Amino acid sequence: MPIWKKIYGKMGVIWFGFGFIFFMLMIFPFQYFLLKKEKKNVTHTLNKIWGRFILIWGGIRVKIHNSHYIQPKQVYVITPNHKSYLDIPACHLLPLKQFRFIGKAELNHIPIFGWMFQRLHIPVQRNQASAAARSFIMSQRVLQSGVSMVIFPEGGIKRGQFLAPFKEGPFLLAIRLKIPILPLVIINTNKIMPDTDNLYFFPLQTIHLHILEPIPTDNMTENDLTTLKEKVWNLIHDNMIKQRA
After folding, report:
1. What are the tens digits of pLDDT across the range 140-162?
2. Is 119 exposed, middle or buried (CB count within 10 Å of its CB: 0-12, 13-18, 19+)?
3. CA-to-CA distance for 126 and 131, rounded, in angstroms?
4. Of all residues in the chain, what percent are helix, strand and coil, respectively (each to 5)?
5. Which listed residue, of 13, 26, 43, 127, carries a Cα 20 to 30 Å from 69's Cα?
């Protein structure tokens, strides 16, 4: 990477980081009050506003493709590819009123943000079987309550892999609860905030969210788990190739 680009990326980190912290501090008192009162839906709405503001602050435009595939009252298991921490605020712009994330437990340690995350969303310690099982049960309860889930099926950002093999969890949830899978392709977040040893942020770009046609699971059983997982992987992979991710 040229030295001028590194300097530009570091300046972008400072600018974006300031906005991230500033807007988080602005809404945290409201989040704290609402979460203490178990008003999770209102807290999520605040987070959607926060996600939109910090992307605007960073000079990032988000373009949503094929939004007609989303039925506002339908519950989905949403399965995006994952290449950057910027994927999370980008997902907040999806045209759904309510959804929750499954995210790695390390997010709990981020000051302020972590406090909110573990009370609103579902943290998972993937290397502990019992903790992963609890997260699975909690996800079932969220979906059964009528709230969609965003689950990154790669199990996190896999550095150096175009699209890592998918975990079974989100597809097992969808089959057991007869909830459609909503594949989502996120393009360009890795160019704006790449997953590297050094943190960079390159503003004034566009994130593309390509919503793919939902896959119903009404007639599926757990015997269809591998087929469903592979189908979604192929759909996302092919779309990433098409969009030159």
Report:
1. 999 999 999 999 999 989 998 99
2. middle
3. 7
4. 50, 15, 35
5. 43
Q: Are 70 and 96 in contact (CB under 8 A)?
A: yes
Report how far residue 110's alpha carbon sits from residue 40's, in angstroms, rounded to the nearest whole number. Answer: 20
State which residues form the domain around 133. Answer: 3-242
The residue type at 231: K
The domain total for the chain is: 1
| Residue 123: pLDDT band with limits 50, 70, 90 | confident
Q: What is the CATH number of the domain that holds 168?
A: 3.40.1130
Average pLDDT in the chain:
93
Mean pLDDT computed over 78-101: 95
Tokens describing residue 137 = 């049960």
Both tokens of 47, joined, read 């987070």
- Hey, is 215 helix, strand or coil? strand
CA 29 vs CA 20, 22, 43, 112, 234: distances in Å: 15, 13, 11, 10, 43
Distance separating the N- and C-terminal Cα atoms of the chain: 19
